[in-house]
Amino acid sequence: MHQNVQKSLSKTLLSFIIKSQIQRVGSLASTNGIMASRRLSRALTTLTVFLGGLYLGNLQHQLTSRQEAPVTALGGPALPLSFSGASVPHYESAQSREIVKSPALWETQLADAQQETKRLRSQIKEMEKQVRRSRYQSSTFEQPLVDSNPRAVPNPHWVCRQLSTAVNATNAIPSASFLWNTRLKSIHAASQLKVNDPRYYFSDFTAQLLAIVAPRLSRSSGHDADGVTVQYLLDRIQARYEYLHAQGPIAEPVKIVVLGGSVLVGRNCRKLCKDLGLQLRMPQRECTWAHRLGVFLNVLVPDIFRVTKIAMGGTNTAVGTTIWKYDLLPPEARQPDVVINAYSTNDMHILTALEASSGNQTLRDRVFVMLQDFAREVLVPPPLACTNAPPPPLFLHVDDYLGNEQRAILATTELRQSVDVLAAYYIFPTVSYADVIRDLVYGDTAESWFSPEGWYVKGMSGMQREIHPGMGMHIVMVWVIAFNLLHVATTHCSREISSRQNLQLDYDRSLLARDVPLQNGPYTNVRGKPNRLPESLPPPLTSNTTLETISIDWKQQSTTQQGQQECTLRDSRCIFSWVSGLSLQQNNRTWILEYFNERTVGESGWNLDDHNDKIGFVPSALGDSVVLEWKNVTQPVLGATFFTMRSYGDTWQDSRIVVIANLRRNRETSWQHLANSTLIGFHNKNTSEMYTEPVFFDIHVEHGDDLRIQYTLMQGKTFKMMGLAVCS
């Protein structure tokens, strides 16, 4: 009798719990949002655990009751009666005797239970995916995730929620320093180059660096980021995460592009391996901090970010501006989400100083002009009417300069002064590796963990000229960049949601309006309220930019630029682009030759040369000519940009080429003149440098036209062409 009562109660209880859980699952499945997905997961897990527990518990009870229960005088085990606390005889059935006699049946039932649990878990995962897919179908990414108590969180974005739950706080957003310093063990582990250093020989060195640097990382952050850009970046991170975990719409990795000179190339980074006698396969390109950053991020947050390095020795921000302006990034790095300018050491290099001197500029003026040109190219906003166009990428300027091109300490700060002014004017964050360890270096200029070891050479008196730091700097730079990306996120999450609509400056759109509604009294509309910002970058900052005219100039510039911008995005601005050193592919001799041969008309006396690791085309003799032709171009073309080397000495004296461009329309037989320009290959500096030389066409090449470009050595013994971009 008692067994029937137990079964009846168990069925009733089981029916109630299953119905309640199914109702809860159904209501959650109809709700969009990450929190709904989490609650759904917990509900389904609870249901599965309960069912599995009942099934397994019942089976275990049957087994143990027949193995361990005392045997009565009648030969059957005694079971406790739950209701009275007394024991009553239980007479063994034929099935019970079969279980006792056959242990193999126990194993079969246990395996069945495990299989059923596995099946239920699989169903849970599939239901989770369906709920997440429904979020894409209802376009919830376009709307902010709203908390049940909207006053509780300034920015309820999914990424912000992940940061808040990282410290088991409901709504509080921890600082970047807190998150960093509570995860030092994971950071140390993620800093290992497992492919290059599988036994982690540099573990102790890395740990000591981290112990010194971790308390100082907050020194590296300067200036704020644009909220609209950061909000979009968080959306990209969320979309990528959702794609990886729910197989939703394709979302590419968040693209980080780093541009720099010889420091970013990694010169001197491998020296420590040689000094310690370690036989490690660590190519220079994999020792550098840009490669390490990609490894580091993909250990901590797998497959969310993709880091691409664009590094060429002897180049500065001016070259970076040309690379960006003409869209010369590798295909996988185009339209990046984060752009890092790491040219600071080369911007303060003697080459830039000589370039400034030749143009009757001070080094500070030259650096200011280069950085402003770069910022204005990267930070161009889309027209407000282009609702689907992404905002400009997050732009970080990195100051890693601790070289001794200038021996006066004050002179070494000229770049920093220019960057601070521009960052405040254009709104972009600055990152300073130098500020993190500056006092350590100044306190002991003979140290070599953070600064160039070559400052002091054994057997030579005094400080020697050197700008390339060792491996310690490249390890620390990873942490500096990662910390600042985290700092940008936590700072943004601690404030109100940013969107392009927030630019209206309307009070009722603000977070404060929820708690402090306007009374709309006689003193509400005080005159002098600022208007919405113009839809463009502010005017260029020069000595002629004044308070009297800046508002007028900004509005006028905004009106002009908005009329010229398009909402559509092309894959590339260029129909042809190659620049020496931009990537491994663009340094591959076979790829370069095939790329040019596809467009070359006739024979050419120009050969590929990689003297001093600077690959480029050089002529064999005076008069050697190259003719490149593009038939039926697929987009308008405004001109071509040549990347040329200028050098010194008798070989380069008076070196120059002549460039001629021609156009043919409607398959006509005659060619029409477009441009004629002379490019020189020598200068009065004892250096070999890359220059950018634009050649603008008198007439625009239109879709369907044919284009021909010819360049010929007209004077001197040699010339070196290191890149060509033919672009809109």
Can you tell me about this structure?
There is one protein chain. With 728 residues, this protein is α+β, with helices and mostly antiparallel strands. It has 3 domains: 137 residues, no CATH class; 340 residues, SGNH hydrolase (Rossmann fold), CATH 3.40.50; 154 residues, Jelly Rolls. Helices cover 41% and strands 15% of the residues. The chain contains 23 helices and 18 strands. Helix 2 runs antiparallel to helix 4 and helix 16 crosses helix 17. It is globular. It starts with a helix and ends with a strand. About 9% of the residues have low confidence.
Kindly list the characteristics that best describe this protein:
728 residues; alpha+beta; Rossmann fold; Jelly Rolls; 3 domains; six-stranded mixed sheet; four-stranded antiparallel sheet; 18 strands
- Assigned CATH architecture of the largest domain: 3-Layer(aba) Sandwich
Number of helices: 23
Radius of gyration: 34 Å
Question: Quick check: average pLDDT?
Answer: 81
Number of DSSP strand runs: 18
Largest sheet: 6 strands, mixed
Structural class: alpha+beta
- Low-confidence sequence ranges: 28-37, 62-101, 135-151
The CATH homologous superfamily name of the largest domain equals SGNH hydrolase
Please give the order of strands in the largest beta sheet: 3-8-7-6-4-5
**Residues in helices, as a percent range:** 40-55%
For the record, the count of structural domains works out to: 3
Terminal CA distance: 89 Å
- The first-level CATH class of the largest domain is given as Alpha Beta
CATH level-3 fold name of the largest domain: Rossmann fold
